[in-house]
Each structure stands twice: as structure tokens, then as C-alpha cells.
Specification:
4 domains, about 575 residues, 11 strands, disordered N terminus, Rossmann fold, alpha/beta, 3-stranded antiparallel sheet, elongated
Length: about 575
């Protein structure tokens, strides 16, 4: 009897010790509430909610819980669960309902009775319903809890209200969508339909919500396809705006669904292609494993114009080429001989946006290729590259410059893929807001030269690359410029594909004098003409002299004059 009594006494003492901290915090909370900060009040209220056990009614009467319930127009039970979910999320970023039951110190059966309060928080927009009513009934251990970050911040700051989360943003909706897609092991896709529908219902007036609803209604029997499509979009910062069809398997857990999705999206007649949400482009150089591209229309549902611009720029800038926007190009006055200047002016006119659109429309009506290919030839230093840069700047076009040295690869087939990838990236850049960009093949002699007899595998690779380039140029729909120092070495098949051909020659003394004055504005007309006649240099050479004198001015601490200029020649 004594031992039994001692055991009961020990259990009672341990119970009191376990609950003393919570009781003390609760008492301190009630006494010092007036002098606590909002964060302190949140901590104290969380202490009340933790291990609430069967004492729900006592905690529901707490003025803090009651105040928040009135402030955000939810029931006291919902207010208690909101405080508990926020505190639990601060401890574990991905808690589930089982974690919540442990936090509250109650059996899961008790929590099931609070399902209406949880759904109340979801409807109010404070939490994401990463679970449905069926989840609460069938799989309480796995049903996820996702609280808005803004909810936690506003609650701890004492500013939470329903207005806190009324502003819909693409980032917020993407975050919700990503969470519901990531937190579910896909064995059967029936639940995915409900999850996507739930996200679309958060802000039904947003274009992206309407897009999601449209997809669900149109592809109700192809939920795995929708799932792969959305995962592709949401992972664009990792994979870029294009992906091989076979890589879609990474998003799908079961082989059967993987095979079906790959088969469906290998068909160019699929709904997503017809509606121009996706585009199917050629695969490797023998046509295997085609790539899927996200169109600008699809991206515009999920991302802002600034985000799309960054996505395309990032995708291009990290892939063997360089994308410049017009504002990044320094303005420069260019001078050419009279006959060439007339051709250059015509080029600027043709690439102005209104004329370019009119040209493409007219060519389309005549069933002719709509792309413009331009060849700039001439010795080094004639300003071929600078002319392209100024064309881009003045016509408001982005400039995509190809690094030809980076195209050639030691592995069989890779160089050919790199050539095709150039035009894929140009297509992506063309979908960005604004005029069509310019694709520049700078110093393209090595790629546009005459085809050679095949004696080695590298010769075969070179000829294959040229064949791919010729085919792409034939169906090109934009603006392509190539520069070369050796126009006589061009393959005839390439030469006839250039609509405009400008040969840049050495400047006359009159033109050279203008170039001297553009670099040294302090020169008189006679001085610049003297320099042009006594030193027949091209524009590149004059620019190098200007750079050298600027460096010397910093070193010597003396501004250059005519005498220093003559001595430096």
C-alpha cells in the first residue's frame, strides 16, 4: 500500500512539474499583458496553446485568443489553431497534422473535431489548404500545414487582419502552387486535380487562376500532363525555359505516367501546343529527343514582364552567347564613305520597327521567307561590329552575340547541338517584350567558309554544322547579321542567303577627318584633315590611339594636345 501510494504521489508530482511552466507563463502573461510587445504576447499565447490537451475551453476564454478571433473575424477555436500553426511553422517549416496534434498535446481524434476551424482559416486566406476535407478524414498523419509567411510576420507584429493577405500576387500564388505540388507523393493523380483547383480558387479573378481552371477543364483526363507542365514552369529558375521531352520523367514518380506524358508531349498536335502554351522544337541533329519550350504566353500567366525578361536573359547569357539590351550599348557616331553611308542609312531604316513589321507582312503575303540576313564584310577595324551594336541600340533591339569558338565541341554530335541551340535561344529572346532581337555571328569566317572534302571525322562535323546552319537560315524569322574579314572565302550556299551585303572599305580622307574629330573634339578642321591625309588609318586604329592617349593622360597627369597626338603616332 505504501509503495502504491508513493507511486501515485510521484506521478502526480511529475504531472505538476510538467504543467508548471505552462501555468507560470500563462499567469505571467495575464498579469503583464499591458506592458508586453506584440511579439511577447504571441510567445505567451503560444505557450497557452502548446500542450493544451483537454483544456480547450479554458484557453478559448483567454482575452488574447478572443481578441484575435474578433480582429480577423474567425472563431476562437480558429484563432487558437492559427497561433499554434504559426508557432509550429517557426519550429518546422513543413509540419503536418500529426505534428500539430503533438504540439497541442491532444489525440488526433480531438483534432479531427476541429476540422471546421482549420477550414475556416483556409477560407480566410491565412493558411494554404495543402489538405482537403478528405485528407483530414483519410490521412491525418500526412496532411500538410502551410501558413503564409506574411501571416506569421503580421501575427507576431500585432497587425494581422484579413486585409493583410487580400493583395494577390503572382509570387504568392506560385508559392502556394509549388507547395501543394511538392508536398504530395503522387501515386494517384486524383488529388492533384483538387489541389490545383483549390489554388485557382484563392484569387479566381487572376489570369493565372483562370489559366489553371482552363487547363483542368480542358485536360481533365490528363492530370499528369498538367502536373509535369506546372512543375516545368515552377522550376524554370533551375532548368531554364526549355527542357528535353525525356527529362519530364524527373517530375513523375511512376513509370507508367512518365511514359504516357512523354508520348503525349512528343505529339505536336497536343492541346498545349495548339494553344501555344508550349512549343515543340527539333531535338538533336538526327531528330531524337525533341525539346519543349515554354512560350511567352505561358510564362506571362505565372511571371511578371520583369521576371520573364530576367529568365530569358539569364537563360541566354549562361549558354555560350551574350545578350545585350539597347540601354547597355554606348551611343557612338559612325562615319562612312558617301556610297556606303547611303547603304547604312537604308539598313537603319529597314530595321526600324515600323518598317521591319511592314516588310515581314509584305513577305508573308507573297509567301516568301520573312527573315532578314545581313552580311558585313571588310578588313579588320572597319567598324563592322560597332555598326551592328549601333543598329541594335537605335532600333531598340536586343543583341544576341554568338561565341563561335564555344560552339565547337570535342564530343561527337555536341557541336551540331550547339548550332541548333543558338536558334533555340534566339527564339526565346524573340518572345521577350519589345522588337525582335538581332542575332550576330561575329567573325563568322570559320563557320561560313567553303565546305571541305571529308577526310576526318572533324571534317564531317564541320560540314554537318554548316548544313544545320543553312537549314536554320532558310526558315529564320528574325534578323541575322554575320561579319567576315574574308568574303571571298564564303561558301556560295551561304552567300546567296544574305539579303543585304555591305562591303566596308577604308575611309577616304574626308571621312577619316570626321572620325578623328569624333575621338578628339578639340581638333580643328585643318588638324583633323592633316591627320587623315598624313596617317591613312581606319576607324579601329584611330580608336586605339584615342584609348592610348587617355591612358597616358592619367599616367602623366597632362591632358593630350595636338603635339602629343602627333608624337604618339
Amino acid at each position: 500500500m505504501i509503495l502504491t501510494f508513493a507511486a501515485h504521489l510521484l506521478v502526480t508530482c511529475m504531472s505538476l512539474i510538467r504543467n508548471s511552466d505552462r501555468v507560470y507563463q500563462a499567469l505571467a502573461y495575464k498579469v503583464d499583458r499591458a506592458c508586453e510587445s506584440p511579439a511577447d504576447r504571441f510567445v505567451a499565447a503560444a505557450a497557452l496553446c502548446r500542450n493544451v490537451g483537454n483544456n480547450w475551453e479554458d484557453v478559448l476564454q483567454d482575452s488574447y485568443v478572443q481578441a484575435w478571433a474578433a480582429n480577423v473575424s474567425v472563431s476562437p477555436e480558429a484563432s487558437l489553431l492559427l497561433i499554434a500553426c504559426c508557432d509550429l511553422t517557426l519550429e518546422d517549416s513543413s509540419p503536418n497534422l500529426n505534428d500539430l496534434a503533438k504540439y497541442l498535446g491532444c489525440h488526433r481524434a480531438v483534432l479531427m473535431g476541429k476540422k471546421a476551424a482549420l477550414e475556416e482559416l483556409i477560407a480566410a486566406g491565412f493558411m494554404l489548404g495543402g489538405f482537403t476535407s478528405s485528407d483530414l478524414d483519410e490521412s491525418p498523419l500526412d496532411a500538410q500545414i502551410t501558413v503564409w509567411q506574411e501571416t506569421i510576420v503580421a501575427l507576431t507584429a500585432g497587425t494581422l487582419s484579413r486585409k493583410t493577405l487580400q493583395e494577390p500576387t503572382l509570387l504568392r500564388l506560385r508559392t502556394f502552387l509549388d507547395k501543394v505540388l511538392c508536398q504530395n507523393e503522387i501515386a494517384d493523380y486524383s488529388s492533384i486535380y483538387v489541389y490545383i483547383q483549390q489554388v485557382a480558387g484563392l484569387w479566381p479573378e487572376m489570369p493565372v487562376s483562370k489559366h489553371l481552371t482552363y487547363l483542368l477543364n480542358s485536360l481533365v483526363t490528363e492530370i499528369p500532363v498538367i502536373y509535369a507542365y506546372l512543375k516545368f514552369i515552377l522550376n524554370i529558375d533551375v532548368v531554364g525555359a526549355s527542357i528535353h521531352v525525356s527529362d519530364l520523367g524527373y517530375y513523375l514518380d511512376d513509370r507508367s505516367s512518365c511514359r504516357r506524358v512523354i508520348a503525349r508531349l512528343s505529339d505536336n498536335n497536343h492541346f498545349l501546343y495548339k494553344k501555344e502554351f508550349l512549343k515543340l522544337v527539333a531535338g538533336d541533329f538526327v531528330g531524337n529527343n525533341p525539346q519543349i519550350e515554354l512560350t511567352h504566353a505561358a510564362l506571362s500567366y505565372f511571371y511578371t514582364p520583369e521576371e520573364i525578361d530576367f529568365i530569358i536573359t539569364k537563360d541566354s547569357a549562361t549558354s555560350k552567347d551574350n545578350l545585350l539590351v539597347p540601354d547597355q550599348i554606348q551611343p557612338r557616331k559612325l562615319h562612312y564613305n558617301q556610297a556606303l553611308q547611303s547603304e547604312v542609312n537604308g539598313l537603319f531604316s529597314a530595321l526600324s520597327e515600323d518598317k521591319f513589321i511592314a516588310i515581314q507582312e509584305r513577305l508573308t503575303l507573297r509567301n516568301l521567307p520573312t527573315g532578314l540576313a545581313i552580311l558585313l564584310s571588310g578588313p579588320p577595324g572597319m567598324g563592322k561590329t560597332e555598326l551592328v551594336r549601333q543598329l541594335a541600340r537605335q532600333t531598340g533591339r536586343k543583341l544576341l552575340t554568338v561565341d563561335l569558338a564555344a560552339i565547337k565541341d570535342m564530343w561527337v554530335g555536341e557541336s551540331e547541338k550547339n548550332v541548333m541551340a543558338i536558334f533555340t535561344r534566339y527564339t526565346k529572346a524573340s518572345r521577350m517584350p519589345g522588337p525582335k532581337p538581332i542575332l550576330l555571328f561575329n567573325e563568322a569566317d570559320g563557320l561560313l567558309g567553303r565546305r571541305i572534302d571529308v577526310a576526318r571525322s572533324v571534317d564531317q562535323m564541320h560540314n554537318t554544322m554548316q548544313n544545320i546552319l543553312l537549314e536554320q537560315m532558310e526558315r529564320f524569322d528574325g534578323i541575322l547579321v554575320a561579319t567576315t574579314n574574308l568574303p571571298d572565302q564564303l561558301d556560295p550556299a551561304f552567300e546567296r542567303r544574305f539579303l543585304f551585303k555591305l562591303h566596308m572599305t577604308k575611309p577616304t580622307p574626308e571621312t577619316s577627318a570626321l572620325i578623328w574629330q569624333s575621338h578628339f573634339p578639340w581638333l580643328t578642321q585643318n588638324q583633323s584633315l592633316y591627320l587623315a591625309e598624313s596617317h591613312p588609318l581606319n576607324g579601329g586604329e584611330i580608336a586605339n590611339i584615342a584609348r592610348k592617349l587617355e591612358v597616358c593622360a592619367v599616367i602623366d597627369g597632362v591632358e593630350p594636345g595636338f603635339t602629343a597626338l602627333i608624337m604618339g603616332l
